[in-house]
Amino acid sequence: MRALEPLLVAAAQVETVAGNLAANLASHRRMIEKAAARGVRLLVFPELSLAGHAAGEHALKLAITRDDRALLELARDCTSLCAVVGFIEEAPGALFYNSVATLHAGRVVHVHRKIALATYGRLDDGKFYGHGERLDQFALPGDPRWRVATPICADLWSPALMHRLARDGATLCAAPVSSAVEAVGTDFDNPRGWDTVLRAHALVYGLPVVFANRVGQEGALHFWGGSRIVGPRGEILAQSESPREELVVASLDYDAVRHARFDLPTVRDARAIDTILAQRAPGNDIVSLS
To answer: Whole-prediction pTM value?
Structure first.
């Protein structure tokens, strides 16, 4: 069997300027240029990277459509790579979504709208955005073995969503995140929690993850960074150790995904298990001991 070419991926750990689309577009272009120079094929920016973490209340001013000139111009810079960028999407009918667009060769090749809206602690997604209603993925241009899913932040904390993505064939997860230390509550350790969740998804499903979190401060929230690439056995391949802007780069081996899924066949067995669970008759989940 011929050797499988590795895939170079990167997380763009950036500091978003809240509400300043022009400044954020400029910082995205700089990161895209750096990543392209290093041969990166998939570059992931944080959640709402073009707008700001708490931009929802300003959606009427900051929202753009998926065919907006700003996105298309940024896409033209993505000649050799795909870039996953976060934005407030205005959809037909004056509906607003927390979305990410995947850009390549002058086009928007995929859009995911956040499904699990975080509305707890200091998080207010549900006050401003609609729930996404599609859970799909796309084949990486030039290498369709890599089927990329782009769940946004709290989407990754839903076992059902991640199970569905893996079951439906995702072989790579791009994870745009905007996580602040104080976001959930004083008794909740966000950095440790994310480490647990990312490693678990990667290990259980043989699913590499490119985790991009922002840095800096917005209001009373401090964003801790920690962007990383997790391999298909839950191993950390590269990780930021700094609360500053940087490009976190690692090489992924598709053959490692094949071996991980052969050794631990969670994805292979998922459809059969889902079928059994769907056939459970109402009331059969309670066993009488009398």
So the answer is: 0.94
